[in-house]
Design a protein that fits this description.
2 copies of one chain form a homodimer.
Chain A: H1 3-13, H2 18-25, H3 43-50, H4 52-61, H5 64-78, E1 91-94, H6 97-108, E2 114-119, H7 124-131, E3 135-140, H8 141-146, H9 151-156, E4 159-163, H10 175-187, E5 191-195, H11 209-216, E6 220-225, E7 238-242, H12 250-257, H13 263-299, E8 305-306, E9 316-321, H14 326-335, E10 341-342, E11 357-361, H15 366-381
Parallel strand pairs in A: 2-3, 2-4, 4-5, 5-6
Antiparallel strand pairs in A: 1-7, 6-7, 8-9, 9-11, 10-11
Chain lengths: 383, 383
């Protein structure tokens, strides 16, 4: 492809959302676009998959209440979330974190029409919120981590939404900041919403958020996700967890959308979570760390290239290239059948801020990542 | 429970939606509430379940485009839907028919705020449509089947929504009526939306709807569902299929909610659909017919009791009891741990019309249905 054609290619897709760019990658062997888990099964995970017929029959014979309770028990405890409200119907199993997000958004908009949202973050969060009719105000990431939120912001919104660890930056709201944020939300009667879908990759995000939220007593909702962690072919659960005082019609809207997730998926989540607690998470963290090192190693020393998220342990990695637009690099990589994400759409309030970064997914086979990083290196070295 | 307590019980739940009543039944062994498939696997279905580990590995190695195409190919062809637009991205795989419904509703409301909807029908359809902000006008079932829709109605709405076969009545829009309805919609530039989730139970609903819709050329959308047919523990797909001229942001909203359904679920649907085409559907129809006969036989001869849907072949059966409220019967059955649905909420425009009917789910083991029908008989015989 010639430069002029590359320009046409990038122009054609510049307004596509991130998921639409992910579709383009789905059938490619060099798909580093979406954040789904596409690495190989570990030995102990393969044993679980081998037992699927028995798990199916066991699930068919067990009351779904027990399966749900075992699944969220294993998952939340593996992630250090011991004070989650598992016993009183405040943990709703959804088909995915995005379905949980859709249900939460529809519940929120019945009372709230202005919301503050972390900037940048994955674009389907602002798109779903805006899609149901909510107006958004950005919270810059530095502001969130460095100081209290301005009273004027909190007075102007009914809810605050924070992704932690954030996607794509990997930044984590620490316990002290979460407590203060929850206190501010309580003082302003603002609902605090968290998306913690990537917390399984980062021990710093595994302090007990529910203990903090319940102690502070603000109105809150948390979206949890099993879908980013394990190569279960997208058999996953997104959980929507809410405070007893939330007082939004979450249950009702949930009941409009689903009766429940598959009993087999609940069982699978339970088994993968137990495996994770028994060493699987450590193995996963080491695997992602290896992949991150491979990408950084392959790209080291290229002029103008940097890694903005030096402390991230998440399963995605941003690469910044000064002097080259992300859509341009995206199109050049695509020409080589390598798919990544350009980052402008993560910057939902100011896309220009993402114009120099692309995102690599790391939950892939290591040799695939190495080969894709080499392709990027050769594209950048050729100018 | 004494009559006074029964009254309290029914009063407490009279405003619950049908899915909320279905939750109450989920952990009971005598759950005839929801329309999910809870019968035993047939011999050939059990063979598929036994091969889950191999299907998992094959699915992991196959491009998802191929898995999708095989899944909808097998499913739509098994149901006689040969002209469905499978080749050009107009068949979107969703986690469930309700997720397809949510996506369609969110797309519709960007252009349309008034819609006509079949009355009665399952209450999550009006609830989702109203939940996104659409105002509904009822289409009585007799009117739909007997004559053209009034011009005044079509002039006042942007879309018409019809469930066929209907839930709970089992009534099917025949080919001639569908063609006329599509023509009327085309003439009035009204979008025709169909939910055909129960069509697998009824050969009368298996003429090629897509051939009719495409020939007439109106704007249309169809929700299809694998979820009611087979005891796959709710591993299922809801498909959202749209006309090329629909011109609503369905693709964009789909991309806000999901990247795709599980490759393993696609493979499972393909295999169950092939099994269905090779005799599985005939076996299913016979099974449901047996269960319907057992229920009707057990309840025959009770004074004031009748079966309003004499020609239904669907996996649900309504029972009408003159002189007794459906909530009252529901509560009395629940006291015996038998769960059914009272029908008032199906009548979303006029709940009083459903006050004398309850709905039995038939996709259950035959001996369970027999025992539950006996319980109802004894409750009614005791007055």
């Amino acid at each position: 492809m010639q430069p002029a054609e590359l320009k046409t290619e990038s122009a054609a897709y510049v307004d596509a959302n991130l998921t639409q760019l992910e579709y383009l990658a789905l059938n490619s062997e060099m798909n580093l676009a979406d954040g789904h888990a596409r690495q190989a099964l570990t030995t102990s995970q393969a044993v679980i998959i081998d037992s699927l017929p028995e798990l199916f029959r066991m699930s068919a014979e067990t009351p779904v209440e027990q399966l749900e309770s075992r699944a969220h028990g294993a998952f939340f405890h593996a992630l250090g979330q011991h004070e989650y409200p598992g016993a009183d119907g405040r943990v709703l199993a959804c088909y995915s974190s995005s379905v949980a997000m859709e249900i939460l958004s529809r519940a929120v908009v019945t009372e709230i029409d202005q919301m503050a949202l972390l900037h940048p973050t994955f674009d389907n969060i602002p798109d779903i919120l805006r899609g149901v009719g909510i107006t958004l105000r950005p919270i810059e990431e530095d502001l969130l981590h460095d100081a209290d939120l301005p009273d004027s912001l909190l007075d102007s919104v009914g809810a605050v939404f924070v992704t932690t660890p954030n996607n794509p930056t990997g930044r984590v709201v620490d316990e002290e900041r979460l407590r203060r944020l929850a206190e501010q939300c309580r003082e302003h009667d603002v609902v605090l919403c968290l998306d913690t879908s990537f917390r399984g990759f980062d021990p710093r995000a595994q302090y007990d958020h529910y203990a903090v939220l319940e102690q502070v007593g603000c109105r809150w909702a948390v979206v949890e996700d099993t879908g980013k962690l394990w190569p279960t072919l997208d058999l996953k659960v997104g959980w929507l967890v809410t405070s007893a005082n939330l007082n939004l019609p979450v249950d009702r809207i949930y009941s409009d959308i689903l009766l429940g997730v598959s009993p087999l998926i609940l069982t699978l989540v339970e088994h993968f979570a137990r495996d994770a607690a028994n060493g699987g998470f450590a193995e996963l963290h080491e695997f992602i760390q290896t992949n991150r090192s491979v990408v950084r190693g392959q790209l080291a020393g290229l002029p103008g290239l940097s890694f903005p998220d030096l402390h991230s342990t998440s399963s995605v990695e941003r690469v910044q290239v000064d002097g080259r637009s992300s859509m341009d690099i995206w199109a050049a990589l695509r020409e080589e059948n390598v798919h990544v994400l350009p980052c402008h759409r993560f910057h939902w309030f100011n896309p220009a801020e993402g114009d120099r970064t692309i995102r690599f997914a790391l939950a892939r086979q290591t040799n695939l990542l190495e080969s894709c990083a080499k392709t990027l290196r050769s594209i950048l070295a050729d100018g």
